[in-house]
Amino acid sequence: MASQLKPEVQTISLANNYITGGMLAAMPRYLPRLANLSLANNKIRTPKDLDSITSKKGRLEYLRELILVGNPVREEEVKLGQLDRYRTEMTRRFPSLEILDSEPVTQIGFDVPQPSMANTVVPKPSSTTFPVEMQPSFITGVDGAMVSNFLMRFFTTFDNQRGTLVNAYHSSSTFSYSINTSIPQRARIAGLHTSRDLPNQRKLDWKPWIQGGEGGSRNLSRGFVLDKQYNSLHFGGEAAVKSMIALPGTKHDIGGPPEKFCVDSFPVPHGDSIGLLLVVHGEFVEVGVDGIRSFDRSFILAPAPEGSAAKTHGWDVVILSDQWIVRHYSTCDAWKPGPMKVQASDPKGSTPAVQQPALTLPPDQLALLQTIPEFQQPLALQVCQRTSLNVKFAVDCLTGNGWDIERAVANFNEVKGTLGREAFL
């Protein structure tokens, strides 16, 4: 009924109604232009409970004021002294917010005259390479031999005797690992996960990684549950090693072809002293499956004090922090020294396609286009041009088809008869 009111409903209060997250699912459909919403004194427990009104397919795009006072999602953070964290998460989920819980949201901007965006033609990118070339591994402020010796010993021990790494970690060190299950665009285009040359890739399973490790993956972009955050951060060598032992076995070819790994290392401030940041990108084979995974691992190291467990066991440095990201295999081409391509060339090497006239977007669509990553904007623009979909529906179409333009257009042609007028420019 509310959706049929004229003018459209822009302000509504659902305070004191014992509302949980699932009850909000229909709101974006029936009140898409809602600007002011009060959910005070309800049962919203976590930010995830708001997914139905913050997801790409159900976002309240015009919401400017939100009240969540009296909900566990806010009050629990207040008790922990983490109100800023709560406000940051809410403004991340609702980028259009101007007022949260009756307090203004800080907006960052520049007081500079801006040219009118009306009828602006979005130019198609012409560059094929990034203006700066990819450089080889970067090591400064430390003896390269020390870095090499540490990595050789650490990964060899990690693969074969993880339990003995307990002495390499400081008593107050932290360890966490995070799983990224998204397949990179580069790897998807290359077909690395369906290639006959890599038959074991299909055998790989994320479940032991996501749920293992004595606390699970600490991918904060996939959730905001406080217990999960705390349980997946491990303090001290014993807790770190206990988590590592509970994860699948690995084999790093650290002594093999050097191009498989990229190492950057340089001094960084750490408390009142100086630490050494050591970042490693590379790959490993998962034992038992023989499939390849890519990883990124960031250490903060410090000289091992005389008499410490690390020094006693032959470590020149002690680990203060260890963050490990495991992801789909994507080859070492990402850090290959030399020119960096920013646009994929035509794989068939065929005659260039006939150029279509540049698409002119209205100001509201241009603004929406700017909210997605820059490298995805040309893809969304092409789908808009070929289908007449608006930016929101073009992005949804690409997302559902792995950001493959041809698949997205084919999918559109299959369902275009079911789409309403709101889907089009």
TrEMBL record:
<keyword id="KW-0539">Nucleus</keyword>
<feature type="domain" description="NTF2">
    <location>
        <begin position="146"/>
        <end position="326"/>
    </location>
</feature>
<dbReference type="Pfam" id="PF03943">
    <property type="entry name" value="TAP_C"/>
</dbReference>
<dbReference type="InterPro" id="IPR030217">
    <property type="entry name" value="NXF_fam"/>
</dbReference>
<dbReference type="InterPro" id="IPR005637">
    <property type="entry name" value="TAP_C_dom"/>
</dbReference>
<dbReference type="Pfam" id="PF22602">
    <property type="entry name" value="NXF_NTF2"/>
</dbReference>
<dbReference type="GO" id="GO:0005634">
    <property type="term" value="C:nucleus"/>
</dbReference>
<dbReference type="InterPro" id="IPR009060">
    <property type="entry name" value="UBA-like_sf"/>
</dbReference>
<dbReference type="InterPro" id="IPR032710">
    <property type="entry name" value="NTF2-like_dom_sf"/>
</dbReference>
<keyword id="KW-0677">Repeat</keyword>
<dbReference type="InterPro" id="IPR002075">
    <property type="entry name" value="NTF2_dom"/>
</dbReference>
<dbReference type="GO" id="GO:0016973">
    <property type="term" value="P:poly(A)+ mRNA export from nucleus"/>
</dbReference>
<dbReference type="InterPro" id="IPR018222">
    <property type="entry name" value="Nuclear_transport_factor_2_euk"/>
</dbReference>
<keyword id="KW-0509">mRNA transport</keyword>
<keyword id="KW-0813">Transport</keyword>
<keyword id="KW-0433">Leucine-rich repeat</keyword>
<feature type="domain" description="TAP-C">
    <location>
        <begin position="374"/>
        <end position="425"/>
    </location>
</feature>
<comment type="similarity">
    <text>Belongs to the NXF family.</text>
</comment>
<dbReference type="GO" id="GO:0003723">
    <property type="term" value="F:RNA binding"/>
</dbReference>
<protein>
    <recommendedName>
        <fullName>NTF2-like protein</fullName>
    </recommendedName>
</protein>
<dbReference type="InterPro" id="IPR032675">
    <property type="entry name" value="LRR_dom_sf"/>
</dbReference>
